[in-house]
Amino acid sequence: MIKKFDKKDEESGSGSNPFQHLEKSAVLQEARIFNETPINPRRCLHILTKIIYLLNQGEHFGTTEATEAFFAMTRLFQSNDQTLRRMCYLTIKEMANISEDVIIVTSSLTKDMTGKEDVYRGPAIRALCRITDTTMLQAIERYMKQAIVDKVPSVSSSALVSSLHMVKMSYDVVKRWVNEAQEAASSDNIMVQYHALGLLYHLRKNDRLAVTKMLNKFTKSGLKSPFAYCMLIRIASKLLDETEGGHDSPLFDFIEGCLRNKNEMVVYEAASAIVHMPNCTARELAPAVSVLQLFCSSPKAALRYAAVRTLNKVAMKHPSAVTACNLDLENLITDSNRSIATLAITTLLKTGSESSVDRLMKQISSFVSEISDEFKVVVVQAISALCQKYPRKHSVMMNFLSNMLRDDGGFEYKRAIVDCIISIIEENPESKETGLAHLCEFIEDCEHTVLATKILHLLGKEGPRTPQPSKYIRFIFNRVVLESEAVRAAAVSALAKFGAQNDDLLPSVLVLMQRCMMDSDDEVRDRATFYMNVLQQKQKALNAAYIFNGLSVSIPGLEKSLHQYTLEPTEKPFDMKSVPLVTTPITEQKTEIAPVATSKLPEKLAPSRQDIYQEQLASIPEFQSLGPLFKSSDPVQLTEAETEYVVRCIKHTFARHMVFQFDCTNTLNDQLLQKVVVQMEPSEAYEVEHYIPALSLPYSQPGSCYTLIRLPDDDPTAVSCTFSCTMKYLVRDCDPNTGEPDDDGYDDEYVLEDLEETFALASVRTLDEAVNNIISFLGMQPCERSEKVPENKNSHVLFLAGVFRGGHDVLVRARLALADGVTMQVTVRSSEETVVDVILASVG
Amino acid sequence: MWKCPVFLVTLAKNEALSLNIEPSLYTVKAVLILDNDGERLYAKYYDDTYPTVKEQKAFEKNIFNKTHRTDSEIALLEGLTVVYKSNIDLFFYVIGSSHENELMLMAVLNCLFDSLSQMLRYANICLKNVEKRALLENMEGLFLAVDEIVDGGVILESDPQQVVHRVALRGDDVPLTEQTVTQVRTTSLLYPSLCCGV
């Protein structure tokens, strides 16, 4: 008995890990005894265990050695030792991806899965499905179907879960087992129920009707498995979310009913589902909150954690709904699990009154160093929210934040703090100086380049307008001396802004610039030289154009335009206006109307939506002569969500043309659509120049067709127009399973909703709504943060800036007044008179 | 203080994965057992959150550092929910997405621990506890038990009785005469089917 010997050795030794000093080569050497006859099950078992242990430790096995060991292992199927056989299954699963030709064990496994030994059958199914591919799956399909409905729960569960794993690979085969899964779902065993439900949902999730039916059936019949209940709740809440139906539907009632389930897991799942629903009213939340409140005093840490974490989420949107739990949350502040304590405090910060803030902050600072970075970020977010709620508390918060900035922490944590301080500065002008001082101190010793450059940018923007701009110069210039290239360059830009706005500082800034011009890095030198020359001109207009206002174009778009420009040799200079603007909202500083402006520039390096469209359109030969793409609209749905064909429209504007892109999706799996065209009947002077059909539209694969419209030249003000759209296509019926279409088809058409351009303020009741309407209708960017309407005011002025097609700058001022409805007075300025007319005509 | 750039990457990745939750049976991301030095005794990862051994070990080190001193049973680490339990010189962890129902993960952890303690109690009559030495002497039992509890991230079974029954591990073949009466009784209680066969 080898094992007994081993044991004695261990006992005499330090009793340490017998697997500790395993050598892969030695173990593989030992594996040769697999070939001995008769098989010694005990020794073989021990060696298999060692092999799996090594694999588990992350040891790398080469293909050759793994294949060799695998083939030797297959001989062990001759032994009838139960544990040994089970370890063989495990080895097969572990080696499925490493060894070659694993399919040679298929017949042995098939024999075990259909055999008499129940202990073998489940694991054999799982091992078999691990090594099976789509073609082989059809060969064992019959056995799988039988196994799914087997009366032994372990067999049925194994078959269902293995089928689920294979859905990704062989959807079409597994789809045929729906009836068996359906039968398994009514099993008495709770795990079989759960697995069957999961498989059924995965097979049907694209078919909303089938999912609804399934839900109805199971919510009525009542399942025994708590796991299955959790799954049902998730499916129901997803369905509710998609249909955006009211919360009076039977699905919501079902979820609410689960709050009274006797299993805590189900109750929690239901409460969490209700809390996460969008637009939940306080009344609907109340029952969920009260069960979570009960959980707060549970002896189980996991349950307390789950409850307080969920309450924390509720508090973000509905702080008043959680106030009832304040007492229970107070008790959790001293919880030994720091995660729970932190969540409890941050929740209280959101729900508590202004007076309790100081006490809570003190409590939290006592253990902030003990909690993980994730929770520190949670704390910072809570503080950020608090500052917006109680602006007067900003000095306490600022103090706390600056202490946190000094502590150790990862990048995410520091970034959260910096963002929080920046937002406080933006909200409270009186906190600006303290905030900037803390940030200055932080960049003195900051290891994160991104944060340092961000803060320098902010200093450049805010610093020059403070009463004592000179004190920031020292911090900024220190960076030029001490930091890496990127930070130095950012510091130079910040310095330039001080020089441009403060005449008395200009001479000193110029001296500093002079020194920067001798920097070792190109970029820093270039910037310094550039700013130096601009500043020496002492012209306000130059400063504004080259120092304050950065590029507002999309960077990938600029790259593409420049590339295009270099490809075609031309006498014309490159025109910046041909580059698409950044589509994300930014507020630009316009010297004419906006003396004060702060902006949050989102760092967006990925190509924007517009860049993607531009690429798509450029690849179509008919559209190449249209010139650069000016602007793309957001998609508009032209069908209801649940119709046979789903069509949405995107409008692309060019200098003289418009292209309508129709993204169509065919949701019928027994039809193939061909030559799909959306015919448009314009109501006014527009004319359709060209249709580009989508050649083929198979089931559930979206395709696009295009319609090219020429804008009328003679009457530039005729911009509003209604298009009636009809989709025309050739239908070919096809087999839903194989997708093989019939030979002949027939023409058909489908009427879509009209596409129109209208603007109505009459229906708008609040100023906020009006502002959003105007912005989205005109497609222009708001300036000076004028898109934010202060509360409780009856009038508001909205400033918009944009570029009209053809590259004419446009400024719009809209004065809004709230009476019964909203009345508006619009003033438009532009370099081109027709543009003004067009905009006024479109609004009026 | 343990800080490394890998942490940032994985944090961002895990956040991205957790967006847009689709109802699914895939609940468990990993099952780990570490010893009291934080060394891996068993680790099974069910998805690509940590694709390389290096990232896995770094994650395990982070988990161990954050959990081995406290006896609380749940934490949020690198954007993942970790439920854990320690016993003598062993640390058991079950890891899932931060959107996962914490109680489901807890059910898996409890099932794993209870199954192992029943199995070990039977296999080592002198050792009553789940501890490192007993576990190492029954590694095959551990492998088979985890295989019965979680399959590819899906919870296969949550009842420890069922798991022990399905693993059906034989202990050392001690002749019946050498066993005490109580042992036979525990054995027959736990393994009625096996004892009939003896």
Automatic annotation (TrEMBL), chain A:
Quaternary context: Oligomeric complex.
Stored Pfam families: Adaptin_N, COP-gamma_platf
Bilayer disposition of the protein: Peripheral membrane protein
Molecular function GO terms recorded: structural molecule activity
Source organism: Oryzias sinensis (Chinese medaka)
Domain Coatomer gamma subunit appendage Ig-like subdomain: 612-756
Protein name (database record): Coatomer subunit gamma
Function: The coatomer is a cytosolic protein complex that binds to dilysine motifs and reversibly associates with Golgi non-clathrin-coated vesicles, which further mediate biosynthetic protein transport from the ER, via the Golgi up to the trans Golgi network. Coatomer complex is required for budding from Golgi membranes, and is essential for the retrograde Golgi-to-ER transport of dilysine-tagged proteins.
Family, as annotated: Belongs to the COPG family.
Keywords: Cytoplasm, Cytoplasmic vesicle, ER-Golgi transport, Golgi apparatus, Membrane, Protein transport, Repeat, Transport
InterPro entries: ARM-like, ARM-type_fold, Clathrin/coatomer_adapt-like_N, Clathrin_app_Ig-like_sf, Coatomer/calthrin_app_sub_C, Coatomer_gsu, Coatomer_gsu_app_Ig-like_dom, Coatomer_gsu_app_sf
Any GO CC annotation of this UniProt entry: endoplasmic reticulum
Region (Disordered): 1-21
TrEMBL record, chain B:
Pfam families membership: Clat_adaptor_s (PF01217)
One term under GO cellular component: Golgi membrane
Keywords (A to Z) from UniProt: Cytoplasm, Cytoplasmic vesicle, ER-Golgi transport, Golgi apparatus, Membrane, Protein transport, Transport
Compartment(s) where it occurs, according to its Swiss-Prot or TrEMBL record: Cytoplasm; Golgi apparatus membrane; Cytoplasmic vesicle, COPI-coated vesicle membrane
Residues of the AP complex mu/sigma subunit domain: 27-171
GO biological process: intra-Golgi vesicle-mediated transport; intracellular protein transport; retrograde vesicle-mediated transport, Golgi to endoplasmic reticulum
InterPro entries linked to this entry: AP_mu_sigma_su, Coatomer_zeta, Longin-like_dom_sf
Protein topology in the membrane: Peripheral membrane protein
Family to which this protein belongs: Belongs to the adaptor complexes small subunit family.
Function: The coatomer is a cytosolic protein complex that binds to dilysine motifs and reversibly associates with Golgi non-clathrin-coated vesicles, which further mediate biosynthetic protein transport from the ER, via the Golgi up to the trans Golgi network. Coatomer complex is required for budding from Golgi membranes, and is essential for the retrograde Golgi-to-ER transport of dilysine-tagged proteins. The zeta subunit may be involved in regulating the coat assembly and, hence, the rate of biosynthetic protein transport due to its association-dissociation properties with the coatomer complex.
Subunit note: Oligomeric complex that consists of at least the alpha, beta, beta', gamma, delta, epsilon and zeta subunits.
Name of the featured protein: Coatomer subunit zeta
